[in-house]
Write a structure and sequence with these properties.
single chain, alpha/beta, Arc Repressor Mutant, subunit A, D-Maltodextrin-Binding Protein, domain 2, 2 domains, 11 helices, 24% strand, globular, DNA binding
Length: 304
């Protein structure tokens, strides 16, 4: 009696469909056409003799067994990734492909300034970047879609290891002249909760900002409108309120061309920790530790 074994590609299609709940988006995530992904899943169902997904015009619904198989597929794919990682780790350090997730409040401000040096010092490294919110990036890490994540801590990312790169202070940003009487360092008590603009849910910087202020009423009163830090800056520049910005964004020139003023926040937790995060027990741990050292030194040189 012969047993059909699913291919890793078919399992990737199945997991992507479960993650995205849509054939088109799942196909994009797998870098294939929708027809290719659909055909691969139908072949999988046909050969194992089980319906995994109920298809309608509006809804993609996994069967109970389909859910269990998708959960198992995630573990199989992670083991396959670790197997490949063992082979890569046995070769030259920081060489070959490495997929790194980066959150949106870090990517545009830090990467353009440190990637040229990384490419110059480690030409054999092929670094693929994936920008996602903190929650999505951690899910991608545990699903094996990325190898490591450039993240802002504290954040609950599951069973991971990390290396802290540097501290990123928070600043209060407000329209020029609006707070002329404020001291050089702004107390959290001086922030008007009715005018505080924050990123929408899904961005860990929102939680870091609220935690730093340590004022429970801010969570209820603050307007969580921004989809990006650049959007928040435009709102503040138009006099719609005040916001909190990380130091790396200021260093990268996010306020250029605006009339916004920014002053350090005076609070107990007025900073976030920028860290490189990877799965616990990863066979490429030495690579990640080396990469963290490279990123840390590059960031220190920029800040100096």
């Amino acid at each position: 009696m012969s047993t059909y074994l699913p291919t890793l590609k078919q399992l990737q299609y199945l997991v992507a469909l479960r993650d995205h709940g849509h054939f088109g988006r799942a196909a994009e995530a797998c870098f294939v056409t929708q027809s290719t992904l659909s055909a691969g899943l139908r072949e999988l169902e046909s050969l194992i003799g089980i319906i995994l997904v109920e298809r309608t015009r509006r809804v993609v619904r996994f069967t109970p067994l389909g859910e269990k198989i998708a959960d198992k597929a995630i573990r199989v794919l992670r083991e396959a990734e670790d197997l490949a990682g063992m082979a890569r780790a046995a070769g030259k350090p920081l060489s070959g492909e490495l997929r790194m997730g980066v959150i949106p409040t870090i990517a545009p401000f830090l990467l353009p300034r440190i990637l040229p040096r990384l490419r110059s010092d480690w030409p054999d490294l092929k670094l693929y970047l994936r920008e996602e919110t903190s929650r999505a990036a951690c899910e991608s890490l545990h699903h094996g879609q990325v190898d490591c994540v450039l993240l802002a801590l504290p954040y609950a990312c599951g069973d991971v290891e990390h290396e802290t790169l540097f501290e990123d202070r928070l600043f209060v940003a407000f329209p020029k002249g609006e707070k002329a009487d404020l001291p050089d360092i702004v107390s959290a008590d001086a922030i008007d909760e009715s005018r505080l603009l924050l990123l929408e849910d899904g961005h860990c910087l929102k939680d870091h900002a609220l935690s730093a202020c340590n004022r429970p009423e801010l969570r209820a009163e603050a307007a969580m409108l921004g989809t990006s830090l650049h959007t928040l800056v435009q709102m503040v520049d138009n006099g719609l309120g005040v916001t909190l910005l990380p130091e790396m964004a200021l260093d990268a020139g996010i306020l250029s061309g605006t009339s916004i003023e920014a002053r350090p926040l005076d609070a107990e937790n007025a900073a976030r920790q920028i860290a490189l995060v990877w799965r616990k027990g990863s066979p490429r741990e030495k690579d990640f530790q080396l990469l963290a050292g490279v990123l840390k030194n590059s960031a220190a040189a920029l800040r100096a």
